[in-house]
């Protein structure tokens, strides 16, 4: 084509270039030095130019002004064509033009000095993307085939998606469609994107969960403008999800998982990219299902092989018509001897069996598909002088199409049993010959044996019986012969005896040993231990009276039960005595103080002192009951997730104050934070109790070392086996006197102490023990007398992602004046109820007392609006306080409920169910404070219009 036609403005040529769907332009190249091209400008463009480049209004304009970041490659290439006149065909990308990829044919046009170049080009970005995505799918298939486990499959798929699409975040998560949450284990990130590992709520990021539940892929190009996400755009951008694609994964009609791809900037998702995302998901799920099936098959085969290996019978698996060994278990090797089995056919492994019929039977079973079995079959192995006897079966195995593919061989070596049976049969033949005629004199053994002997026929009657029957059971020979032996049996022993009888006659077992109870003629029962040998349809048996031994065993068991009961009573007595001792001390203080308060003309200073003594004593009594509940694992815990190291650091200063300046306190804490789930206050108390115990063991001078480490099990201790799992081990070691070995089993018992009177309650370590057990852990102690002791507290170790940081509300001030607040008090104890009502009146409240839950519900049904709060005891007859609170929550959702209890097994096992709890004993200030807290949360009702 002559380039002058275009330059002269040929209308036909112009129409031609405007009609084609590829881009066309004529450019003029400018050089800023010889052979160095600096820029080019557009002289003419066709109508498709703008579609292929995205540039508009370019005629007469320079490229560096239109696209300052345009690659130098383009200027160099066009300059070279303009200078040399050699046309060029090439492909290259232009990032400054939106990352487009072009296929270009360029040639010089016009006079050389004009330095003009005609360019025909097409935007092949879509094709390149398709090629890149297709190549990525090929790579994905290869990489998936190389992975060994399911987790690696997911990692590879996420990486391929992320790198191919140039996004920042890719991952999979398990979905709970009811709770509308997604749980992510780990994901693929780049460019500093934040991982989504953990549990997320879909509704926190938009309303598109509804689309996902319908099975629709959610495509968001800009979270700020999409109506489903614009309200939550900030939360999405914080997680690098300004634009994203969420693909739901369904199994058996249920929404179970989600694949997500996201980027931190707005993005128009191409259709081929969406197809690529879906295809990666399909291939990954297919590979995952295949790998899971393979792993399940491998596990099943391993279990089967393990099962076959544990079987007492010999087992072999043969394949193909030549019966090649694929598997033999250890019993097979023990029976037939060590040989090279696997991969060899049976005729090569056992050439000595030729002519014994086994090879012919294998061929028959393989050809016909009919199994074969035989009993006590003789076989002669190489190197053995005598025959061996086996019970065996040949069972054909089949492929998916039903054709025979091999033979399963199984059986037992019964050589010893056969030899024993032969010997017994010979003996029994002689025995039967001797007893055939009743009139013949019987052998001295038969006549004089203290053991019962007899011969039972197929109908279950004793054909013969020796004199010991009369001695042991009181029955005559005639009575024995006329009664089926089942009629002598204890009712509970009839069914087992029938099974043994069937086994003896039908299965032909060589010998049986069993015990049962026979009826004595006096109506009592005797325990007999039997040995029975079946032969020729009869059973030859003997039995020994073991009644005395059974009675001795029973007496021993009763004595052991009585001993355990006595030990329990002794433990209860020790615990009761300790509680009585400590509470009598506390009651002495209270009684003395109340007596002194009754004295007339008591100075105010002494009155305050006595009242304070009563209050302090009540606090000590509350702590004492709390420690007892801790040991009994019945305290109400408030578990939180926190770092054990942080808890140790927080309590270190207090421990240092308690131990004194002469005791050095050392902490050994790991850099990695070890999170535990426990009640923080009880955790602090346990550390303090262990530290005080260590201080007292060192006589005021030494070193205490506190260490924290993760542990993968609780070791075996105190007759308990080891417990596998994830735990945090918090150890406190001292350099004190140590604990004698015979005392280690007692140190956790309530009120056990080696300290002087008045220097310890004996409840500190019992609190540690109870707290550890109730939290799901344990406490271990190791000690060397003269060197020191180490207490190790094992508590459940949880992942950092499970950590919950509770928001600690400011404790409200005491409500000194009730402001006419109306309180419904529910208390079945009249004294406690009267105190509560009087205290509330003194504080300015308006209390209404109900004696039980039914009365309370009746009051509320009359006029619930007059009450501002319900204050109820937990332990009450009939409906308890927790059930009452639940019923009030259901009937009157806005009415707050406060629970109170000194102890409740319901609270200890189930918690407070979200209700406020005021522990008994409580003060008037405690009562006022909790009412202030709950009433301040209650929304004030909107007044109704007149």
UniProtKB/TrEMBL annotation:
CDD domains attached to this UniProt entry: HisKA (cd00082), PAS (cd00130)
Start and end residues of each PAS domain: 455-508
Ranges where the Response regulatory domain occurs: 822-935
UniProt-listed SMART domains: GAF (SM00065), HATPase_c (SM00387), HisKA (SM00388), PAS (SM00091), REC (SM00448)
Keyword Transferase: yes
EC number(s) per entry: 2.7.13.3
InterPro entries found in the cross-reference section: CheY-like_superfamily, GAF, GAF-like_dom_sf, HATPase_C_sf, HATPase_dom, His_kinase_dom, HisK_dim/P_dom, HisK_dim/P_sf
Substrates-to-products reaction catalysed: ATP + protein L-histidine = ADP + protein N-phospho-L-histidine
Alphabetical list of Pfam families matching this protein: HATPase_c, HisKA, PAS_3, PAS_4, Response_reg
Alphabetical UniProt keywords: Kinase, Phosphoprotein, Transferase
PROSITE patterns per UniProt: HIS_KIN, PAS, RESPONSE_REGULATORY
Presence of keyword Phosphoprotein: yes
GO molecular function, one term: phosphorelay sensor kinase activity
Domain Histidine kinase: 578-799
4-aspartylphosphate: residues bearing it: 873
NCBIfam families associated with the record: sensory_box
Protein name as annotated: histidine kinase
Protein source organism: Methylobacterium radiotolerans (strain ATCC 27329 / DSM 1819 / JCM 2831 / NBRC 15690 / NCIMB 10815 / 0-1)
């Amino acid at each position: 084509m002559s380039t002058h036609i275009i330059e002269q403005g040929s209308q036909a040529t112009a129409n031609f270039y405007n009609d084609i769907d590829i881009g066309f332009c004529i450019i003029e190249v400018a050089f800023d030095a010889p052979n160095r091209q600096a820029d080019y400008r557009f002289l003419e463009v066709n109508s498709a130019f703008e579609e292929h480049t995205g540039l508009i209004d370019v005629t007469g304009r320079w490229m560096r002004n239109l696209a300052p970041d345009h690659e130098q490659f383009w200027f160099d290439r066009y300059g070279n064509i303009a200078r040399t006149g050699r046309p060029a065909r090439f492909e290259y990308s232009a990032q400054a033009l939106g990352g487009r990829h072009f296929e270009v044919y360029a040639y010089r046009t016009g006079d050389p000095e004009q330095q003009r170049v005609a360019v025909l080009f097409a935007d092949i970005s879509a094709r390149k993307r398709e090629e890149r995505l297709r190549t990525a799918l090929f790579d994905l298939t290869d990489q998936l085939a190389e992975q060994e486990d399911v987790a690696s499959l997911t990692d590879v798929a996420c990486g391929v998606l992320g790198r191919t699409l140039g996004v920042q975040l890719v991952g999979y998560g398990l979905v709970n469609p009811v709770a509308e949450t997604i749980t992510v284990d780990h994901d693929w990130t780049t460019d500093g994107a934040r991982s989504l590992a953990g549990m997320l709520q879909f509704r926190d990021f938009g309303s598109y969960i509804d689309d996902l539940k319908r099975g629709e892929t959610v495509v968001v190009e800009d979270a700020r403008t999409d109506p489903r996400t614009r309200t939550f755009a900030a939360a999405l951008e914080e997680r690098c999800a300004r634009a994203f694609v969420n693909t739901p994964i369904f199994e058996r009609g249920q929404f179970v998982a989600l694949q997500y791809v996201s980027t931190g900037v707005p993005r128009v998702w191409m259709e081929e990219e969406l197809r690529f995302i879906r295809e990666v998901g399909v291939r990954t799920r297919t590979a995952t299902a295949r790998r899971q099936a393979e792993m399940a098959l491998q596990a099943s085969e391993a279990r089967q092989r393990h099962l076959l290996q544990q079987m007492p019978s010999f087992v072999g698996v043969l394949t193909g018509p030549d019966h090649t060994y694929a598997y033999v278990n250890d019993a097979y090797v023990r029976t037939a001897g060590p040989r090279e089995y696997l991969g060899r056919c049976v005729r090569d492994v056992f050439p000595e069996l030729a002519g014994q019929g086994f090879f012919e039977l294998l061929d028959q079973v393989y050809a016909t598909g009919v199994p074969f079995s035989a009993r006590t079959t003789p076989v002669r192995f190489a190197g053995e002088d005598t025959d061996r006897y086996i019970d065996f079966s040949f069972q054909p195995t089949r492929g998916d199409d039903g054709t025979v593919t091999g033979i399963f061989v199984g059986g037992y070596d019964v050589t010893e049993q056969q030899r024993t049976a032969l010997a017994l049969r010979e003996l029994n033949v002689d025995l039967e010959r001797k007893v055939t005629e009743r009139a013949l004199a019987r052998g001295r053994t038969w006549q004089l044996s203290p053991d019962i002997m007899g011969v039972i026929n197929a109908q279950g009657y004793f054909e013969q019986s020796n004199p010991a029957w009369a001695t042991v059971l009181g029955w005559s020979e005639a009575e024995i012969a006329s009664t089926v032996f089942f009629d002598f049996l204890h009712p509970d022993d009839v069914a087992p005896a029938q099974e043994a009888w069937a086994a003896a006659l039908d299965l032909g077992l060589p010998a049986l040993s069993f015990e049962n109870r026979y009826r004595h003629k006096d109506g009592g029962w005797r325990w007999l231990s039997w040995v029975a040998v079946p032969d020729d349809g009869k059973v030859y048996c003997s039995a020994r009276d073991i009644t005395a031994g059974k009675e001795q065993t029973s007496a021993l068991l009763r004595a052991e039960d009585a001993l355990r009961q006595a030990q329990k009573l002794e433990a209860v007595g020790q615990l009761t005595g300790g509680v009585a001792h400590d509470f009598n001390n506390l009651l002495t203080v209270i009684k003395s103080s109340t007596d002194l308060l009754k004295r007339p003309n008591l100075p105010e200073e002494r009155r305050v002192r006595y009242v304070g003594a009563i209050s302090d004593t009540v606090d000590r009594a509350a702590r004492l009951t709390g420690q007892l509940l801790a040991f009994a694992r019945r305290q109400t815990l408030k578990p939180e997730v926190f770092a054990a190291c942080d808890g140790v650091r927080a309590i270190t200063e207090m421990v240092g104050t308690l131990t004194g300046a002469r005791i050095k306190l050392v902490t050994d804490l790991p850099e990695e934070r070890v999170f535990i789930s426990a009640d923080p206050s009880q955790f602090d108390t346990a550390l303090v109790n262990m530290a005080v115990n260590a201080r007292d063991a060192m006589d005021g001078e030494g070193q205490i070392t506190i260490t924290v480490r993760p542990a993968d099990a609780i070791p075996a201790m105190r007759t308990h086996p080891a417990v596998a799992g994830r735990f945090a081990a918090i150890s406190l070691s001292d350099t004190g006197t140590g604990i004698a070995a015979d005392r280690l089993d007692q140190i956790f018992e309530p009120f056990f102490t080696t300290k002087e009177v008045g220097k310890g309650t004996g409840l500190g370590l019992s609190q540690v023990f109870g707290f550890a057990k109730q939290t799901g852990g344990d406490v271990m102690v190791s000690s060397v007398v003269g060197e020191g002791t180490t207490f190790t507290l094992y508590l459940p170790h949880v992942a950092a992602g499970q950590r919950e940081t509770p928001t600690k509300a400011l404790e409200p001030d005491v409500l000194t004046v009730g402001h006419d607040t109306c309180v419904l008090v529910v208390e079945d104890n009249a004294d406690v109820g009267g105190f509560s009502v009087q205290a509330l009146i003194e504080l300015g409240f308006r209390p209404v007392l109900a004696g039980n839950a039914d009365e309370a519900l009746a009051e509320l049904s009359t006029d619930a609006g007059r009450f501002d709060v319900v204050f109820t005891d937990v332990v009450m007859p009939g409906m308890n306080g927790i059930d009452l609170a639940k019923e009030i929550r259901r009937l009157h959702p806005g009415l707050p409920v406060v629970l109170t209890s000194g102890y409740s097994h319901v609270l200890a096992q189930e918690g407070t169910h979200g209700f406020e709890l005021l522990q008994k004993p409580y003060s008037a200030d405690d009562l006022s404070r909790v009412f202030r807290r709950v009433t301040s949360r209650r929304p004030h009702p909107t007044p109704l219009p007149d």
